[in-house]
Structures are given as structure tokens and as C-alpha cells.
Design a protein that fits this description.
Radius of gyration: 18 Å
Number of strands: 10
CATH topology: Rossmann fold
Distance between the termini: 22 Å
Shape: globular
CATH architecture: 3-Layer(aba) Sandwich
Number of helices: 10
Number of domains: 1
Largest sheet: 7 strands, mixed
Order of helices and strands: EEHHHEHEHEEHEHEHEHHE
Structural class: alpha/beta
């Protein structure tokens, strides 16, 4: 995966393979679901998900996970006492999950046109979804606003232009992004500045409640070659401490918690 720095929009641009349903189905088809779900019971990520959700939503709250992938987060939230529905557009993966764990409510669907009435969910979780559309996430954000109840919470992880990545961009570690010289048909994702995400979602009717660094292991592994073994060791024995120390410096993503409070500005861009 090749990364470029777009200085005009202050983002990283990942070029390598288009993130479409076929790609996700191919990536996930060999995943050992039994091992994945077993591991998810006690992982640090699952602990953080449970803690963040419980901080803002009571048990039995109704939650949608948009872009649920392999369904392990749906499983974690259901096990934590929430009423959860997962939606994804990777049709083969959805079918596989429906057979493997039919007790989970996982449905095929398009996040830009969700098959739900308005104002029905107390919370909406989104793990690394909105960054994969080169032309922006305006339709997804509108649907997030529509299906959430007034005062509902949006929990969303998005790849970040972290402090480490900002320093590398300033030092010229990434080649410059030029639209006329890059094959956009192989676009994979953006890594956004937190300022841009906050501004864009403010325009869609969401107020930021808090944010924190997310996916530190990947953030270090991707940006500092040769650290895989060290990070594996640190996260095995000092996972939470390592995350706390590095989460605001070397994070791959930010976890944003927004509250649906305002009225979206229809002319607000999302690109």
C-alpha cells in the first residue's frame, strides 16, 4: 500500500487496492471466525468498546454498527447487554456470518440508504468505514443523523493524521499526492486530520463529546519499521499502559464520540 501526502487537504492518501465489497469478501473469506470471536471476548479493543459504550448508553440501548465486517464488534456489544444490529455490503461475508452465528442480527445493506425508519437507534458504531470513499462520506453521514434519535451518540474510528504522521509529512517522508499522477481506481482510504473530521461532522449535525487515540499497535507498526516484535511484546504484557502512553502520538486512528444535537447543513461538503 503506497501512501501519499495531500498538502492541500492535509490528509494521507492510501493507494493500492480499491476498497469494494469483493475486496472485503476476499480478505475475510479465510478468517477463522471461531478464533476471532473467542479472542474478542478479552481483547483490549473490546474492553475499550464496552467502556466507551457504557459511558454514554444504558444497557439494552439499541445500537447499529454500520459496516460491521466480520461481526466481532456486534458480538461484543450484544454480550455486553445491548440490542445490536450490524449492516455490511460484503454479501458473502454477511451470508457466512448468518450461518456461523445466526443469533446475531447481521444484515446486508448499503450505509448510504439504510433500511430503517428515522430516529430509531440510541447509538451508532462505525469502525474504519467512512475513509474508504474517495468522493466523500456525505451520504453516510446523513444516514447516521437520520437513524439516530435526537441526543443519540455516534462512536466512530477514522484513520488519523497523528502527531507522528504530521511530523513525517513535514519532513517529507511521504511522496506528494497529485491527482493527475495517481490511479484513483486503486484508492483504498484517507487518513484525515482530526480538525477536518470535527468540522465536517459539525456540519452534519453532530457535536464532538470526546476523542481519543485508537489502534496504537498499527499506528507504530505502519510508521516505524522494525517495531513489530517489540510492539507485540508490549501489548501482550503491558497493553493498556502502552496504549495510554502512545495513544495521542502514534495512533493509527482516532475514536470520536459525537452527539446528535444540531441540524445538518445540506450544503456542507464531505470531501
Amino acid at each position: 500500500m503506497k501512501r501519499y501526502y495531500d498538502c492541500r487537504r492535509n490528509r494521507l492518501v492510501y493507494i493500492g487496492q480499491e476498497a469494494n465489497p469483493d475486496m472485503w469478501d476476499e480478505r475475510w473469506k479465510k478468517e477463522d471466525l471461531l478464533r476471532l470471536f473467542s479472542r474478542s471476548r478479552n481483547s483490549l479493543e473490546s474492553e475499550l468498546i464496552r467502556d466507551m459504550t457504557a459511558k454514554y448508553l444504558p444497557k439494552r440501548a439499541k445500537i447499529l454498527e454500520g459496516g460491521c465486517g466480520l461481526g466481532d464488534k456486534v458480538f461484543v456489544l450484544k454480550q455486553s447487554g445491548y440490542e445490536v444490529i450490524g449492516v455490511d455490503y460484503a454479501v458473502q461475508t454477511v451470508g457466512k456470518l448468518n450461518k456461523f452465528m445466526p443469533e446475531l442480527d447481521i444484515r446486508y445493506g448499503d450505509l448510504r440508504t439504510l433500511p430503517f425508519l428515522g430516529h430509531v437507534f440510541d447509538g451508532y458504531w462505525s469502525f474504519g468505514v467512512i475513509e474508504h470513499d474517495y468522493y466523500g462520506f456525505q451520504e453516510i453521514a446523513r444516514e447516521m443523523f437520520r437513524v439516530l434519535k435526537p441526543g443519540g451518540f455516534l462512536f466512530m474510528t477514522v484513520p488519523a493524521l497523528s502527531r507522528l504522521r504530521r511530523m513525517k509529512a513535514a519532513a517529507g517522508f511521504y511522496p506528494a499526492f497529485r491527482e493527475d499522477s495517481v490511479d484513483r481506481s486503486r484508492f483504498y482510504q484517507f487518513a484525515y486530520s482530526s480538525e477536518e473530521i470535527q468540522e465536517l461532522f459539525k456540519g452534519h449535525g453532530f457535536d464532538l463529546v470526546e476523542k481519543q487515540g485508537w489502534s496504537v499497535y498499527k499506528g507504530v507498526r505502519d510508521e516505524v519499521p522494525g517495531t513489530h516484535a517489540l510492539m507485540s511484546l508490549l501489548f501482550r504484557y503491558l497493553g493498556k499502559l502502552t496504549w495510554r502512553l502512545l495513544k495521542n502520538y502514534c495512533n493509527h486512528s482516532f475514536l470520536y464520540t459525537f452527539r446528535r444535537t444540531g441540524v445538518p447543513h445540506e450544503d456542507h461538503p464531505a470531501h
